[in-house]
Amino acid sequence: MSDALVHCIGLDGDMIVREAFASNVAQPGMVEVSAEIYEVAKNRLNLCKWDGTSLSDYTPPAPAPVIPQQVPMWAAQAALKQDGKYDAINAAIVGDAAASPPVPSMEASNAPVFFAWTMGNYASRQSAFIAALASQFDMASADIDAVFVAADHLAQIAG
């Protein structure tokens, strides 16, 4: 029989101490510990983890960034420019007559993409337009997320 109990929950692969009890009446989910461990645990709830024999520091992971689902088109294009992808994407959509060989505009071959890029007010993360660009320019989902986060940041700065 131990001097005290701690109640642990599984979080991020660790057993995080949620409660400490100066009692020896075990309940489901509780772990028996010594009085010394109890004293440390009761002052560090949610900040320590139990490995079965001792307590150690626990730092919760940083929250995942919120990926905006819609950003102004100008901000998306500016973020792509900062990322070095704008010129290739713009040339593929708008065309580049000076290129050798010349790159035709998508205005006739894919009018929705052409007009979304040149006149669209917003870029939507889940749109077919964004999915098509990602596929054509070999951009992973994380790359698109990064563009949307950067675009949202630019839009907030610009006010």
Number of helices: 6
Question: N-to-C SSE series?
Answer: EEEHEEEHHHEHH
Largest sheet: 3 strands, antiparallel
- Describe the global form: elongated
- Going by helix content, strand content and strand pairing, the class is alpha+beta
Overall structural domain count: 2
For the biggest β-sheet, the strand order reads 2-1-3
Beta-strand fraction estimate: 15-25%
What would the average pLDDT be, to the nearest integer?
79
DSSP summary, beta strand count: 7
Which spans of ≥5 residues are poorly predicted at pLDDT below 50? none
First and last CA, distance:
63 Å
Report on the structure:
The chain has 159 residues and is an alpha+beta fold. The protein folds into two domains: 4-57, no CATH class; 70-158, no CATH class. The protein is built from six helices and seven strands. It has helices at 35-43, 73-82, 86-94, 111-119, 128-136, 141-158; strands at 4-11, 14-21, 30-33, 48-50, 55-57, 70-72, 122-124. Helix 2 (73-82) packs across helix 6. The chain is elongated, with a radius of gyration of 27 Å. The mean pLDDT is 79.
List the helices and strands and how they pair.
Elements: E1 4-11, E2 14-21, E3 30-33, H1 35-43, E4 48-50, E5 55-57, E6 70-72, H2 73-82, H3 86-94, H4 111-119, E7 122-124, H5 128-136, H6 141-158
Antiparallel strand pairs: 1-2, 1-3, 4-5, 6-7
Helix pairs in contact: 2-6
